[in-house]
Amino acid sequence: MPRDWTPREMRLVAEWAVRTFPLALLRLRVDLGDLKPAMDATGLSPAELRRLGRSRRWVDAMIVEPQAVHLVEGKIRLVPGALEQLELYRLLFPKTPELAHLQDRALELHVVYAVEDPALVALARSRGVKVHIYRPPWVEAY
Questions:
Q1: 128: alpha, beta or left? (left if phi > 0; alpha if psi -120 to 50)
Q2: Of 9, 17, 82, 115, which residue is the least packed, with the fewest Cβ within 10 Å?
Q3: How big is the CA angle at 61 (ends 58 and 65), to the nearest 5 degrees?
Q4: Which of 28, 38, 19, 120 is nearest to 79 (CA)?
Q5: DSSP conformational letter for 50
Q6: For 3, which DSSP code?
Q7: Which pTM value belongs to this model?
Q8: What percent of the chain has pLDDT over 70?
Q9: Average pLDDT of the residues in 99-106
């Protein structure tokens, strides 16, 4: 019997963020990048353009502190793609118009995971990505 789908990685990130940055502003699933659609939008209404904007990439969590912004990707099992996602988010963050007011703050990248891969942890650290193992009891049941 297949397991029910639940947003486990989002839960992992949210729990970790609240414990690690209890006084900071936390936003989940934050769109990143330019609002311009990837296709020709000639003749589309403002509402249609907004729907196209939802096709942007998103970071699992953004944590805002007075001096820094933290972009967080979460994985139950750490996989190589998580690091590439964070590198892409680093490039998209300055191109996000609704986050322009945060551009003067230091940008830090984090990956939160429950199942470790030592090679990927080493690679993440070499790229300046902060790594955090977080394994709450509910992960065992998963």
A1: left
A2: 115
A3: 125
A4: 120
A5: H
A6: P
A7: 0.85
A8: 86
A9: 97
